[in-house]
Amino acid sequence: MFTFLLRKKEDFSVQFQDPEKTNILLKKAGILDRSDEFTKDEIAKILGVDAVLGGRFETEQTKSEAGAIASAVMFGGFGGKTGTGTIFLTLNEGKSGELIWRLFKNMDANITSSTDDLIERMMRKVARNFPYAK
Hints:
- By secondary structure, this protein is an alpha+beta fold.
- It has helices at 2-7, 19-28, 40-47, 65-75, 115-129; strands at 51-61, 81-93, 99-110.
- It has one domain.
- The chain is built from 5 helices and 3 strands, in the order H-H-H-E-H-E-E-H.
- A 3-stranded antiparallel β-sheet has the order 1-2-3.
- The protein is globular and about 45 Å long.
């Protein structure tokens, strides 16, 4: 996600901290593997940032492309979905830890789109809905 946001950085009024720097600071503080035990405002203080963006991204392949093509031939249509992707993001204010923004989105992939296409569509969705757009 950082790579996508960095490519679009001119569209945002904020800067994004490099995940490598984030991981180093969390490791130095001894919380890299236990960050879920700390509040967002505590993490923001450790990282020296104004807000904390967190969440998770998952993809799952539910049917092979060959299976989707076979379904399309047997049942007509496009063969249905070949996979799914889920993204859940939260943005918390650094001083108070208060939730500023969240995004939850499920998207499907089909035989006309790859996993990379699915990820790209999800990242565009994040960029369109991110609260710090110029």
